[in-house]
Amino acid sequence: MSANSQDIRYKAGEMKGQADVKKDQIADKASNAAQSCKDSMQNAGEQVKNKAQGAADTVKDTMVMNKK
């Protein structure tokens, strides 16, 4: 095997390694973004649930007051 051939193989391996690292970084960023989105949606869902419960309680209290 010639030195030139070995150099080309070395550089190809090095480029593959760099590409793998970059791929992992992108996958990590995507995973973090997805987790952040999930957390935000859960928080929003809890807020909506709490507001709906408050509204239901207000209606219930109003109905009880009107019966007195």
Automatic annotation (TrEMBL):
Residue stretches of biased makeup (Basic and acidic residues): 8-27
Q: What is this protein called?
A: Stress-induced protein KIN2-like
Q: Where is the composition biased (Polar residues)?
A: 32-45
Q: Please give the organism.
A: Acorus calamus
Which region ranges are annotated with the description Disordered? 1-68
Q: Which residues cross the membrane?
A: none
